[in-house]
Amino acid sequence: MRTTLNTIYSNINNNLNNIRTDLHNINNRISSGLRMSKISDDPVAMANALGMRSSLAGISQYQDNLDYGSSIINGSESALTQIKEQIGQARVTLLQAKNSSVNTDQRQNIATVIRNYKEQIVTLGNTRIDGKYVFGGHRTSGYTEVEPAPFVLDKIDGYRINGTMIEPRNPDSPGWLVENTADLPNGALQITNATDGTIAVPFTDLTNPLTDGLNMAGTANLRDSINASGLTETSASLTTLVSGNSAAPGGSGTISFDLTGVDGTVSLNFTVDGNAIETAHKTVEEINRVSDQTGIRAYRGNGSNGGPNNSVVLRNNRDGEEGVIQIAGLNASETNRIGLVDVNQAADAGHNTGFISFSSSEPFTFNDSAYTDGTLQTLGLKESYVGKTGTDTNGNPVYGINHIGELGENDLRINGIAIGAAAPDSNSILYPSESATAKADAINAKSGETGVTASITPAYVLAGAVVEGGTLASGDLIINGVDIFANSTTIQNQDSDNTLLNAINAQEGKTGVAATRDAEGTILLKAIDGRNLHIETSFQGENITHINGANPPAAANQVYMGRLQLHSDQVFNLETDLFGLDKQEYGLEALGLSGGKLISGETGDLAGDGKITVQQVVEKSGSVRYAGDREENLAIKTGRTDQMAISSNGEEAIMSTEIFGVLTQLEDNLRGVNYHQVTGIYSAGDTTAKLDSGLTGLEGEDEFKDGSFTVKVKDHEHSPPEEMEFTISVNTDQDSLNSVAVKINGIPGMEAYWNDNNQLEMHSTEPGRYSFTVSKDTSNFLKSTGTDSEKMQMQALDDGLAGLEESFNRITTHISNFGARANRIDVQKQIFDTLELRVNENLSTVQDTDYTKAIMDLKAAETAYQAALSSASKTMQLSLVDYL
Question: Is the dihedral of CA 269, 271, 276, 280 positive or negative?
Fold first, then answer.
C-alpha cells in the first residue's frame, strides 16, 4: 500500500496531540493534587474514592452525635449529682429535726424546707440541653399545658379510675311488688323460656282495694293467671302473710302459744308489760328469736306494710313460700293483749306480702308486647336484683343469666383487649364470681396485654345505729356463713363490755371479717381481703346490732362487695357492649363505673355510650407525676443499626429511687400526719389483763382512763383521697391491751396487734396506699404503749432517714452508670477518630497525586514530545525531497 505525504502528516500530528494530552493530564494532576478529575480517568478508583468519601461523611455525623451525647451525659450526670446533694442536705436537715430541743412549730418549718428540696429535685429532673429534656426518654419535647415538663409537681403519677361500691344485694329469692294499677290486658305480658317458648299471660284483674297498704288480691290474681297460662318450666308464687289486730295498750301478763311454720313448731312463753308499741315489739322479738326453727319472721305493722298500726305481722321467711302459718293455744286475754288469734293460714288473696316471686328451671324472659315497658313497670318487673338484660330491644329483661355486677366473658374490653369472665374466688360464700377479688383477678390476667392493673378496696359496712342491749342467740347474726352465737348471749348497751366485738373477731379465721366499735357503740365490719361480706341478721340480731341498717329493724340478709381501682402508666380505654334501648353498660356496671362522668369523674364520659377514656391528670398535693417516656432511653446512632443510650428516662433514673415518696412522707410526718407504721416503745407483761387491774406489766404505763382516741385513715390512691375517722373507746374496767388493739385492727386500712416482744404494732395494710394519724387521746392508751404522736413522729423520721439513705445509694448508682456511659463515648470517639484517619489514608492512596511519579512522567512526556518533534521534522523534510 502506498503511503502518501498526507498520511504521514496526519500520523505525526496525532502522535504529537497524544503526547500533548498526556502532558496536559500530568499538569492537571500536579496542579490539583488529584489523580482523577472525572470518572473516565479511572472508573474503578473513582468508585472506591466516592465510597470512602461517603464513609467519611457518616463518620463525621457519628462524631457530631457523640459530641451531642457527651453534652447530654455531662448534663444528666450533673443533674443527678445535684439531686444527690439535695438528698444529702435533706439528711442533715432531718437530723436537726430529730433533736429533742426542736418543737412542733419548728418541725412545721422544717417540713417546708423538705418540700423545697423536693421542688428543687423536680426542677433538676426537668434539666434541658439544647432545648431537649434529658430525662424525658424519647419524649424530649412536645409537652403540653397540662404536662409542661417530664416531672410535674402536685399531680398524681399515671392514670387511675375508681369504681364505686356495688349496691348491697339481698340474696333471698327476688319478689316484685304489684301495685294497685290498671288491669293487665290479654297477652300484654309474655314469658319466654327455651322449653315452653313464648306464652301470653291471660287477662289479670289487678285493680283491687289495698289490704293494709298491699295489693294482696291483685297479686294473687296475677299468680293464678301466670300459672294458668301453660308454662311448665316457670311458675309464680306468693309469700304467706298473717296479721293480727293492734296490740292492746297497757296490756301485761304471760303469753303462751304454739307457732308452726314451714320449718317446724315452737312453743313460745314470754311476758309483756307496757304500752301497745312495747307489747308488739316484745312479741315480734320472741317470734324472731325462733325464726330459724319455724321459718317465720315477724315485724310490727304500721298500716302500710300488711298490718294495722302496732299489730304483729308474720310472714314466711323465704320469698315465694306459700306454706301454712299456724298459731294455736291463745286464750281470749292473750289475744286481746297481743292482737293475734289462732290461725291456720296459707297464702291466698287476703294473706300475702303483695310481692310475686318466680322460680324457673332455666333462664326466662318477660316480654312487654308493646315494647314500652309500661306493663313491666306496672308489675314492678322493669328492674331486677338478679337479672341481666340479654336482648337489644326494650321491654325484655332476662332473668337467670347472671347478676348485675358480674363480669361475664367479653363483657369488658380494656384497650381493645377482651377481658375473660371472672372466675369464682375461693373465699366468698355467696356470689364468689362477683367479688372484688374475682373481677380484679380477671383484669390482672390480661394486664400484660392491656397495661392496666386492678387493685381492691375491701368491703366494709358501718352499722346504722349504736348497739342496743339484748340477747343474741343462734341464727341472730351470721357472717359469711358462720353463726356467731351458738348459745344465748347477753349484749350490753353500746357493747360496753366488748362481748359482741369479741364474738365476731373470734371467728375471723373462718369469716375473713374483722370488727371494731367506735366510742358511741356503733359496730363496723370489714372484710380482710377482696371477698364478699355476707351478713344475715334476724329481727333480734338487727334490732341489737343494726349492722344491716334495716329501718325500722327487721330481719335482713345482705351481701356487701368491695370495689376496684384501675391504674396504668398511660391513657387507657374501657369499653362494653350496650344492652336494650336504655343502653345499659353491664361491663362498666360490674366495675361500679356505669352512669357517665358523674360516676367516673372523666369529663368525656357520657352515660350510655359504653366507653370511658381514662385520661384525666388528677391533682394531688405533694405528689410528683412523671409524664415522660417510661420505656425508652434517649439514645444516639453510632452506626446504621447501632445505638448508644446517652441518658436514662425519668422513671428509671429518678422515680425508681423513690425519692419523691420519701420526701413527701417526711414532709407529712414533720407536720404530724399520714403515718404508715409505728411500733410501741414499751413492752407489756400481760396483754389480756384489764387496764384498771395494774397487771398489764407495761413499762411505760401511765394512769389509764376511761376515754377514747381518734384514728384517721386516708386512702391516697383514691382521687381525691378518701378519709375515714374512727374514734376508739377505752373502758378501763372492760378493756385489755389486746382488746383495744383488736378495735384498731377492725378499722379499714389498718392492722394492729401485739408482737413477739409484746409491743403494740400499728401499720396500714398497704403502706403505699393507706396512711393513718392518731390524735385526741383522752385515755392515755397511746402514751402508755409508746405509740402516741410524738413517738410515732420520731419513728417515722428514723424511717425517713433510712429511706433517704436508700435513695442516696440508688442515685449514686445511676451517677456511676453515667460515668460508664461517658467512658463509652470516649472510647467510641477514639474508634471513629482512628477510622477517619485510616479512611483518609486509603482515600489519599486512591485519589491523591504521587508528585514524584508525576514529575518523572512529565519529564518523560516532555522528552518524548521533543523527540517526536525532531523526528517529525526530519521525516517531513525527507518526504518533501522525495515529492519534489
Answer: negative
Bridge partners of 728, per DSSP, are: 518, 709
- Is a pLDDT exceeding 60 seen at residue 391? no
3-state secondary structure of 282: helix
| 50 vs 323: which has the higher pLDDT | 323
For β-strands 556-560 and 611-614, DSSP reports them as unpaired
> Is 577 within 8 Å of 150 (Cβ atoms)?
no
3-state secondary structure 205-242: CCCCCCECCECHHHHHHHHHHHHCCCCCCEEEECCEEE
Q: What is the mean pLDDT of residues 405-429?
A: 89
3-state secondary structure of 6: helix
Q: Do the Cβ atoms of 490 and 458 come closer than 8 Å?
A: no
- Is residue 743 left, alpha or beta, with left meaning phi > 0 and alpha meaning psi from -120 to 50? alpha
pLDDT at 384 > cutoff 50: no
Phi, psi of 731 (to 5 degrees): -110, 110
Q: Specify burial of residue 315 (Cβ count, 10 A radius: 0-12, 13-18, 19+).
A: buried
Peptide bond between residue 553 and the one before it cis (omega within 30 degrees of 0): no
Q: Which contacts of 26-32 are long-range, i.e. CB under 8 A and separated by 24 or more positions?
A: 26/854, 26/857, 26/858, 26/861, 27/858, 29/849, 29/854, 30/849, 30/851, 30/854, 30/855, 30/858, 32/849
Length of the chain: 884
- In percent, the amount of the chain with pLDDT more than 90 equals 53
Report the alpha-carbon distance of residue 647 to residue 635 in Å, rounded.
7
Q: What angle do CA 819, 824, 828 make, to 5 degrees?
A: 150
- Which pLDDT does position 672 carry in this prediction? 92
Residue 367 cell numbers, joined: 316480654
Amino acid code (one letter) for 510 = K
What is the C-alpha to C-alpha distance for residues 541 and 538, in angstroms, rounded to an integer? 5
Beta-bridged to residue 155, according to DSSP, are 619
DSSP string of 142-166? ---SSS-SSEEEEE-SSEEEEPPPP
Other C-beta atoms closer than 10 Å to the C-beta of 830 total 10
Distance, CA of 324 to CA of 344 (rounded, Å): 6
pLDDT tens sequence across 709-718? 999 999 988 8
Phi, psi at residue 530, to the nearest 5°? -85, 15
For the chain, helix (H) and strand (E) counts, in that order, are 21, 42
Could you tell me the sign of the dihedral formed by the alpha carbons of 744, 745, 747, 748, in that order? Answer: positive
* pLDDT value of residue 858: 59
pLDDT tens string 788-839 = 998 999 999 999 999 999 999 999 999 998 888 888 888 878 877 777 777 6
**92, pLDDT greater than 90:** yes
75-89, 179-193, 384-398: least confident range: 384-398
Higher pLDDT, 60 or 572: 572
SS3 sequence of 465-498: CCCCCEEECCCCEEECCEECCCCCEEECHHHCCC
Q: Determine the residue type at 581.
A: L
Tell me if residue 195 falls in helix, strand or coil.
Answer: coil
Q: Which residues 6+ apart lie within 8 Å of 428 measured at CB? A: 435, 437, 438, 480, 531, 532, 534
| DSSP-derived secondary structure for 344-406 | EE--BTTBB-SEEEEEESS-EEEEETTSSSHHHHHHT-SS-SSB---SSSTT--EESS--TT-
All three cell numbers of 654: 429518678
Rounded Cα–Cα distance for residues 94 and 393 (Å): 66
pLDDT tens digits, 683-735 = 999 999 999 998 999 987 778 999 999 999 999 888 778 899 999 999 999 99
Nearest to 642 by CA among 131, 53, 69: 69
Alpha-carbon Rg for the chain, nearest whole angstrom, is 44
Under a CB-based contact definition with an 8 Å cutoff, are residues 633 and 649 in contact? yes
